[in-house]
Design brief:
mainly alpha, about 40% helix, two-stranded antiparallel ribbon, 6 helices, globular
């Protein structure tokens, strides 16, 4: 059932269902995306202000604003959680964010640079850049939910 999460003995949050975090973790088990995995983990940690291992609405909204400049409504947040098989009361676990960045169109390197600018080598945990990007094609696509730079579509 979507949203049913359990915590494994290694501390990893997993979810039942074929598109859940169990299949997401398989994307990174072979080590081929090690650099990407580290960057996603750093981004997740940076925005996980309450250190509960999940990005709640406020935290994911901050990530969205920092990386794309687009705001996220509570309804969009719930839709993202449903699409990624996460419970919206908890938020996105690390594996769900990894899955988002593994999707076509996502650019973890670009988002990482926005969150941790190259000149910020000393204190990466405290600095977040927020930029507002003007949308030249404001055609009011309410049915499309995009997360991160490059607009990864996580809508159903």
């Amino acid at each position: 059932m979507p949203g049913d999460e359990t915590t494994e003995s290694n501390g990893t949050t997993t979810s039942s269902g074929s598109a859940g975090p169990r299949s997401m973790s398989a994307l990174f088990e072979d080590g081929t995306a090690f650099d990407m995995k580290d960057k996603v983990s750093a981004i997740h940690s940076h925005f996980d202000r309450d250190d509960d291992g999940h990005l709640n609405y406020s935290e994911l909204r901050s990530l969205q604003l920092a990386t794309s400049g687009a705001d996220m409504t509570p309804e969009q947040y719930k839709q993202v959680c449903v699409a990624l098989n996460c419970h919206f009361d908890k938020g996105l676990c690390l594996n769900a964010l990894k899955f988002t960045y593994a999707s076509e169109g996502a650019d973890v390197d670009e988002d990482y640079r926005k969150v941790f600018p190259p000149d910020d080598k000393v204190n990466k945990k405290k600095k977040t850049t927020t930029t507002k990007k003007k949308d030249d094609n404001d055609n009011d696509d309410d049915d499309v939910i995009e997360v991160g730079e490059g607009g990864v579509d996580v809508s159903s």
